[in-house]
Write a structure and sequence with these properties.
Number of strands: 0
Structural class: mainly alpha
Radius of gyration: 28 Å
Order of helices and strands: HHHHHHHHHHHHHH
Shape: flat
Length: 389
């Protein structure tokens, strides 16, 4: 299914890990240069600005090709213009196949064509259905994005897949269930929990690392979806936007007390499990969720003026940070304030990098001092049995 060269794809992951090991001080620059010289890799860019630049260039190239096709086919067409989005999607597929076969991966050019084909497939289905069947559009984008991720190992396609699949389930509930609006928040809660544990189980059984980042991305997105599914502000405003009685102030929702508990309880649970499992990304999500929870409360209940609230909030955060640093700065293991030597690593890549070092016969840069005691002698197989020193 994967179109990319698996060997080069794995080598690219090893080079990234070697960079982390070099930054952490485990290997030297000479060893890193040697690894990069010995391992052929894919054409990619880790610099986000360079990648955005190539993405804009690829978008211009893609739109130019679509414009040429449009100019060649517009003459003498009336209703047949609806075929153009399908032709644009085909251009995206052909471009993605050509760039991927030329070892372009996370480069920027390939991003433009891969995302473009998914956009045009959704647009083509929307034009064919006159924009009335949103469920058909989301299903088409879901299928196109998951195929793109599995074939091109494109990380953004994994994000598009999860968002499109979530939208598909949401629209399906509205279309086929009479009480869809009432059960949608609870359904999304269980859906987020199920996605999270499914991804954790999938990661534990993952044999090859190619899809690891995409699964981790979906797992973390499920945490965000779980929080927003039960956030009081989101549920109340979204429910009001779907109703016909939404004027200036949204009406109160049923089970408001439950959603308030959920709004402040989930960030606390995220924080607890992030510290327990040493999950850095979950910790960031918990901080963001705490901030949005207080924003949700102030959206309806303004207890203090904004300047006083911000000042008091800053003082509380400073006190928490100061006390936490004092508590953790002398700890050497577990949860500690000491800097992490490797900010991004996993067991597979560490093991692979060490295997490369041992396979290539890399020697440590620090030479051990020679021993002052000389060994040798002995007439019986080096046993030292000659009776002299």
């Amino acid at each position: 299914m994967i179109l990319l060269n698996k060997s080069k794809l794995k080598n690219s992951a090893l080079i990234d890990e070697a960079d982390s090991l070099k930054n952490a001080g485990f290997i030297g620059k000479e060893q890193l240069d040697f690894i990069k010289k010995e391992l052929p890799v894919l054409n990619s860019h880790n610099n986000i600005l360079v990648r955005i630049g190539f993405f804009l260039l690829g978008s211009f190239l893609y739109s130019s090709l679509c414009g040429v096709v449009s100019l060649l086919g517009l003459s003498g067409m009336d209703e047949s213009w609806k075929i153009f989005p399908y032709l644009f999607a085909i251009i995206g597929v052909v471009g993605s196949e050509i760039l991927t076969k030329q070892d372009y991966h996370n480069h920027g050019l390939d991003d433009a064509f891969i995302l473009g084909l998914q956009l045009n497939i959704g647009f083509a289905v929307g034009v064919s259905t006159d924009g009335d069947n949103i469920l058909a559009i989301t299903i088409a984008v879901t299928i196109a994005s998951i195929i793109s991720y599995l074939r091109y190992v494109h990380l953004l396609s994994a994000l598009v897949f999860y968002l499109a699949f979530t939208a598909t389930l949401g629209y399906a509930i509205f279309d086929f269930l009479e009480a869809g609006q009432a059960i949608l928040p609870f359904f999304m809660m269980f859906y987020g929990i199920g996605t999270y544990y499914f991804c954790r189980r999938l990661i534990s059984k993952l044999d090859e690392p190619f899809y690891y980042k995409g699964i981790v991305l979906i797992k973390n997105m499920s945490l965000i979806l779980l929080y927003f599914s039960g956030n009081y502000l989101v549920v109340r405003e979204f429910s009001a936007s779907l109703a016909d009685t939404y004027y200036e102030v949204s009406p109160e929702i049923p089970f408001a007390f439950f959603f308030w508990i959920f709004t402040f309880g989930i960030p606390v649970l995220y924080l607890f499990f992030a510290l327990k499992n040493k999950d850095r990304i979950m910790l960031w999500i918990s901080f963001a969720a705490v901030a949005f929870s207080f924003y949700s409360f102030r959206f309806y209940y303004s207890v203090l003026p904004i300047e006083i609230a911000l000042t008091l909030g800053g003082l509380v955060l400073f006190a928490i940070a100061f006390l936490s640093i004092r508590k953790l700065k002398h700890k050497e293991t577990g949860l500690t304030f000491k800097p992490d030597r490797i900010a991004n690593s996993n067991a597979f890549l560490n093991a692979e990098a060490l295997l490369i070092a041992s396979t290539f016969g890399m020697k440590p840069e620090v030479k051990s001092p020679e021993s002052p005691m000389e060994f040798g002698g002995g007439g019986f197989s080096g046993g030292g049995s000659e009776g002299n020193f």
